[in-house]
Amino acid sequence: MAALSDPLSDFLTRFKNACRAGKEEFTAPFSKMKAEVARILKEEGYIWSFEVVTDGAFPELKVKVKYLDGVPALTDLRKESKPGRRRYVGVDDIPKVLGGYGITIVSTSRGLMTGHRARKQNVGGELLASVW
Fold first, then answer.
1. Which residues of the chain are in CATH 3.30.1490.10 domains?
2. Rounded distance, CA 91 to CA 108, Å?
3. Per-residue pLDDT averaged across 32-61, rounded?
4. Which string of DSSP letters, residue by residue, matches 72-101?
């Protein structure tokens, strides 16, 4: 397996590919940040559930994709901050996705949270992804 320069981007790409291929679940290598992103996606209704599987040599994150009448809850997503170009935003600059129908995931000094929650808590940070 090749070393990844952006594991979070790999996780989000696996999620998008699983939705487009009609898969019910997918796995990705475990990390705390990916687990937090999965928690946010579950809270916002984009996935049914996730769990950490420790059967093999390395732990994995197993995610069940959410479908409503055969249509995935995820329409699309975009990785905003990349290793070569980080994108930091202040509380006033956190974008609204599709007029508030989508979410942004922001890494703040208080942990990972949605853009809406970051605006409520009056904190900015690194804009990781937009999901709709």
1. 77-131
2. 10
3. 96
4. ES---EEE--BTTB--EE-GGGPPPGGGGT
